[in-house]
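User: Structure with protoporphyrin IX containing FE, tokens only please.
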Amino acid sequence: MNSPESAQVDTQSHATALGYMISAGVWMVIGTFAGITAGIELIAPDLLGNIAWLVFGRLRAMHTTIVMFGFAVTMLIGAAFYIVPRLVRVPLFSEKLGMASLFVWNGSLLAGVVALSLGYTQSREYAEMFYPSDIGVVVAFVLMLWNLIVTVMRRKEPVLYVSVWYFVGGLMLSAATYIIGNCMWAGWKGAIFGMPDAVIHWFYGHNVLGLLMTPLAVAAAYYVIPRAAKAPLYSHTLSQIGFWSILIMYTHIGTHHLLQAPAPTWLKLISVVDSIAMTIPVATVLVNLWMTAQGRIGKLTQNPAARFVFVGTIMYLVVCIQGPFQSLPIVQRITHFTHWIPAHAHLAVVGFVGMIGWGTCYFILPEMTGRPIHSKRLANLHYWLMFMGVVSMMVVLTISGLIQGHAWYHGEGVYRVLPSTFLYNVMRVMAGAMIVVSSWIGLYNLLRSIPQAGGARASAGEVAS
Ligand code: HEM
Ligand code: HEM
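Assistant:
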């Protein structure tokens, strides 16, 4: 379990953790801008004419690559570089190695996104970046893991808290599945052929969500909630069951993205059964975290950082009720390919992973810098805009998805249904605008919270305020 000890000022520079978190803030600003531009194009397809790098197909891939890898994953890797050394009670093995990994990671993403804007894509969702970027991403994962694993090996704390398991395990598995899923042995093509390619692709695509983003977000929540609630973790056993069961279940469910495709039936069956069995790891994590916070939820939600994280766990529950439901073939016959799926996707990646990412950032910043965050009021505004934005986007897209699904099911063509979804696309952009503005506020507040070199540090009491 994680230690509930109160925040303490330390003397490390934390350049790597801060570097990753600032990068994530910048990527979110760029990525959400790409998202809102893509959303506007769905209302006014001719608005930007035929500017090649701004056509929807390129913009969509740029948006998903930036927000998922650049923002959500990067923010939580930043958290890992602070939290893991802290939990094992030694400094990070090497800040220089950490900065090198950050440089390779950001450089690979930047090159990949620029290439996407120029039309160089491997055309497989979440694996779109070209070959040189894939190599860079794997090198960056190896550098991160080298740094974190040596840190853990030098530990002074005999107990390996659950956050350490999730952070290191998630990165280790992702380094492996990135190579497999991007078919890196196939070189520039980055794919094999036919249905086997689709199966490998969605094995990987789902692992980005389930073995990279989810463990990193859960690791961060396991750190923040006990500390914010000032209570020991409810159960160490539950946390172990959650860790091992997620590994068993998540690796088998990628084919639930292919229920409408000619994938082998036995594989579809396994994916549906394990999608439902996912309720086990999800329930163990949520019961454990919420029982830890029991009786202290009011206190927890007064702190904007802890509120971000706590509400992120509620989003996780909703996402994981939706997920098994939409894995049922009878439901997917209606929902597949409709706006229902981006509704689930945004609730998951913005509401669950993104909100836990920002909350953790706000929570650990004072511990790292030795002074309170720049503005609690701005953090509250950031929270409300992101929360309202993602919830309204989810509601709007779910309704629009059901309209599409039912119309298509009853034989209407895609073109004839477009007028019925127009208004919902407008509302999606309005909801998205809240998330865009929240990203500016988050980045500003983060940058202003970092003291100038040599700036005075506050006392531990001030930190906790
Ligand atoms: C950090 C914030 C965001 C994250 C993590 C995020 C993530 C994603 C993901 C994972 C997808 C793929 C969904 C799928 O294929 O089912 C997606 C698609 C999309 N997102 Fe976002 N998004 C964010 C913010 C926004 C914002 C602010 C807008 C503005 C309206 C937006 C508009 C879109 C659009 C238009 C698509 C394409 C949907 C389609 O093809 O039907 N996103 N986003
Ligand atoms: C119990 C857990 C979950 C289950 C069973 C589940 C199930 C599904 C299914 C069946 C789809 C595809 C639907 C279709 O294409 O018709 C899907 C899509 C998606 N899910 Fe989940 N989900 C779960 C949790 C999560 C979590 C935790 C995340 C994020 C961290 C997430 C992110 C996404 C995204 C981004 C997509 C869109 C993929 C695309 O572009 O097509 N899901 N989910």
